[in-house]
Write a structure and sequence with these properties.
The chain has 500 residues and is of the alpha/beta class. The protein contains 14 helices and 21 strands. It has helices at 17-28, 46-49, 81-94, 185-195, 219-227, 229-250, 255-271, 275-281, 298-302, 360-363, 397-417, 427-441, 469-477, 481-484, and strands spanning 7-13, 34-37, 101-102, 107-113, 118-123, 129-136, 158-161, 175-179, 198-202, 209-210, 293-294, 307-310, 314-317, 321-324, 329-331, 334-337, 352-353, 382-384, 420-425, 485-489, 494-495. A hairpin with a 4-residue loop joins strand 14 (321-324) and strand 15 (329-331). The structure holds NADP nicotinamide-adenine-dinucleotide phosphate. NADP nicotinamide-adenine-dinucleotide phosphate binds at residues 56-59, 141, 147-149, 162, 179-185, 204-205, 291, 314, 338-340, 451, 453. The site of NADP nicotinamide-adenine-dinucleotide phosphate has 25 residues, from loops.
Length: 500
C-alpha cells in the first residue's frame, strides 16, 4: 500500500440512526478520526426516505430514541416521521456530526488488506476510502422493494413506492390502487382515503391488528421531563418493561399469543361490523409471525364509501391498472407499492472481501450469520449494526442498536489502543453462537409457519433475535474480546490476549 493515502480510524457506512449513533459514541469515547459515508444528500436513513402520508413509528418515542440523546419535547406518544427526522437533525447539530459526513458517496465494496490491517472502501465516482475499522450501518430497510408481479413495467400511470413518495403528485380526486397491507400500507391508506376519489387496497395476506392510542404530551409533562431527566428515564424504563411483557405473546408462540390474538379479534369486532369483511381480514397464522400492525385508523378507512378491499389474487399489472385472477381489470391514475424493501438475508448489500480473499456473499449465500450479530469470522475489524439475528419483534430497534454500538465501540477501541492489525472473532465461537440462536428460534412465532421478510425462501431466519430485549442487551454486554476473538498486532506479532 502506498504511503500517501489517508487511513482513518473508522469508516461508518450510512448516516441513519445507527451510523449517527455509532459516531456519537465513538466521539464520546475519544475516537474522532472517523468518516461517515452516505449515499444520499441528507442524514436520516429510513426516516428521510419514508415520508409517505401517515408515516409514523409504532414504538413510543420515549423508547424509540437514544438514551444518550433524550428528547423531552416529543409532541405525542408515537411520533410521525417528520418529528423523528427533526430529532435526528437535532442530534447531528448537537454532536457536531455534519463535519464528518460525506454525502453523495455510495459505497460499492469492501476489501480487507490483511498485511496492513486496513479496509479499502470503494465508492462510486471517487477514490477509495481507507480505514482500520468499518461500521456497516446501511440498514436492512433502505432499498425499496417492488413485487415480482407480471407486467409491472407495463403500467403507464403514476407509480409510487411507500419509501420514495412523490410529494408533488396531488392525489385529490384520483383513483388509486394500493398493493400491500403491511406496516406501511396501514398508515398510508387512512390518509389516502381523505383526498383520493377512490382507493382500492389489494391484500394478499391480512395481518394481526392491535389498536393504537396516541395522546399528545402536555406542556406540563414536557416541562417535567426538561427539568427532571430522571423522570424521562423512568418513563423510558416503564415503556421498556411494558414491551418486554408483550414479548411473551409476540416472540414465542405461547398461551400469551392467544391473548394477543383475542385482543386483536375484539378490536376487529368493534371496528368492523360486517362478518364477511372480518373473515377477509382475519389472519391464518399466529400473531407476531409477521409484524403486528398497530393502528386504530386502518379498519375504519377500509370501510369508507370511497375505499374497497380486494382479496382476489393479482394476476398481472396492465397498462392501466391491476388485473385480478377472476378477470377484472381495475384501472387507476396511480399505483402505490407498499410492498416493503429489498432485504438482503442471503448475500450482502455490497461485496465484502475478507481474509485470504474470502467473499462474504458466498458464505451467506444460504442465509446470513454472525457472532452476536455484530462481527463475522474472517472479516476482522468490520462491525455490523442490525446484523444477522438482531431484529426485535416487540420492542424498540434503538434499544438493540444502542447495545450493538457499545460492543462496536469497545472493539474499535481495542483495535486502536492495542495497535492491532486485526481482531477477528473465532469461527468455533461464532458457530456455537449460531447453533444456539437457531435452536432458540424454533420456538418463536416467526418460525411458526408464515412467510415474512424475516425468513429466506427456504425458511432460514437470519433476521430476528429470539428473546427479550434485555437478553439481547446482556448478549452484547457479554461480548468477550479476549476469549472469543483472535488478535494480531500491526507488526504481525500474535498477541496472546487483548483483555486488560
Ligand atoms: P412489508 O411488511 O414487507 O409488507 C409488504 C406488503 O406487500 C405485504 O402486505 C405483502 O403481502 C405485500 N406484497 C408483497 N409482494 C406482493 C405481491 N407480489 N402481491 C401482493 N402483495 C404483495 O413492508 P412494509 O409495510 O413496508 O414494512 C416493512 C417493515 O418496515 C416492517 O416490518 C417494519 O419493520 C418497518 N416499518 C415500521 C413501521 C413502524 O411504524 N415502526 C412502519 C412501516 C414500516 P404478504 O404479507 O402476503 O407478503
Amino acid at each position: 500500500m502506498s504511503g500517501a493515502i489517508t487511513v482513518h480510524d473508522t469508516a461508518i457506512i450510512g448516516a441513519g440512526f445507527a451510523g449517527l449513533g455509532a459516531a456519537i459514541r465513538l466521539q464520546r469515547n475519544g475516537i474522532d478520526d472517523y468518516v461517515i459515508l452516505e449515499r444520499d444528500t441528507r442524514p436520516g436513513g429510513t426516516w428521510r426516505d419514508n415520508t409517505y402520508p401517515g408515516a409514523a413509528c409504532d414504538i413510543p418515542s420515549r423508547l424509540y430514541s437514544y438514551s444518550f440523546a433524550p428528547n423531552p419535547d416529543w409532541s405525542r406518544t408515537y411520533s410521525g416521521s417528520a418529528e423523528i427526522l427533526s430529532y435526528i437533525d437535532a442530534m447531528v447539530a448537537e454532536f457536531d456530526l455534519a463535519r464528518r459526513i460525506r454525502y453523495r458517496t455510495t459505497v460499492t465494496g469492501l476489501v480487507f488488506d490483511e498485511a496492513e490491517g486496513v479496509w479499502e472502501v470503494s465508492v462510486a465516482d471517487g477514490p477509495p476510502v481507507h480505514a482500520r475499522t468499518v461500521v456497516l450501518a446501511s440498514g436492512p430497510l433502505s432499498t425499496p422493494g417492488y413485487p415480482d408481479i407480471r407486467g409491472i413495467d407495463d403500467y403507464t400511470g403514476v407509480r409510487m413506492h411507500s419509501a420514495a413518495w412523490d410529494h408533488d403528485y396531488d392525489f385529490t380526486g384520483k383513483k388509486v390502487g394500493v398493493i400491500g397491507t403491511g406496516a406501511s400500507a396501514v398508515q398510508i391508506v387512512p390518509e389516502l382515503v381523505k383526498t383520493a376519489a377512490h382507493v382500492s387496497v389489494f391484500q394478499r395476506t391480512p395481518g394481526w391488528v392491535l389498536p393504537r392510542f396516541n395522546p399528545t404530551v402536555s406542556d406540563r409533562t414536557k416541562a417535567v421531563y426538561r427539568r427532571l431527566p430522571g423522570a424521562q428515564r423512568v418513563a423510558r424504563a416503564t415503556w421498556f418493561a411494558g414491551h418486554e411483557a408483550v414479548a411473551l405473546g409476540v416472540v414465542w408462540a405461547s398461551p400469551a399469543t392467544r391473548v394477543v390474538e383475542a385482543v386483536s379479534k375484539i378490536n376487529m369486532r368493534r371496528q368492523v361490523p360486517d362478518p364477511w369483511m372480518r373473515r377477509q381480514l382475519t389472519p391464518d397464522f399466529r400473531a407476531g409471525c409477521k409484524r403486528l400492525l398497530m393502528t386504530s385508523d386502518y379498519y375504519p378507512a377500509l370501510q369508507r364509501d370511497n375505499c374497497r378491499l380486494i382479496t382476489w389474487p393479482i394476476a398481472r399489472i396492465s397498462e392501466k391498472g391491476v388485473r385480478t385472477v377472476e378477470g377484472i381489470e381495475h384501472q387507476f391514475d396511480a399505483l402505490v407499492f407498499a410492498t416493503g424493501f429489498e432485504v438482503s438475508k442471503q448475500g450482502t448489500p455490497i461485496p465484502v472481501v475478507g481474509r485470504d480473499g474470502r467473499v462474504l456473499a458466498q458464505e451467506w449465500a444460504r442465509g446470513a450469520y454472525a457472532y452476536k450479530s455484530f462481527a463475522v469470522s474472517g472479516y476482522p475489524n468490520l462491525y455490523f449494526t442490525f446484523g444477522p439475528n438482531s431484529g426485535p419483534g416487540h420492542s424498540s430497534a434503538l434499544v438493540y442498536m444502542e447495545a450493538q454500538i457499545e460492543a462496536i465501540v469497545t472493539a474499535i477501541h481495542t483495535v486502536l489502543d492495542r495497535d492491532l492489525a486485526l481482531l477477528d472473532v473465532r469461527a468455533d465461537v461464532q458457530a456455537d453462537h449460531n447453533a444456539d440462536i437457531q435452536r432458540r428460534l424454533r420456538a418463536t412465532t416467526w418460525n411458526s409457519g408464515c412467510q415474512s421478510w424475516y425468513l429466506t425462501a427456504d425458511g432460514f431466519n437470519a433476521t430476528m433475535f429470539p428473546g427479550f430485549a434485555a437478553q439481547y442487551v446482556a448478549q452484547m454486554r457479554g461480548v468477550d474480546l479476549s476469549s472469543d476473538f483472535t488478535a494480531v498486532a500491526r507488526r504481525n506479532a500474535p498477541v496472546a490476549a487483548v483483555a486488560g
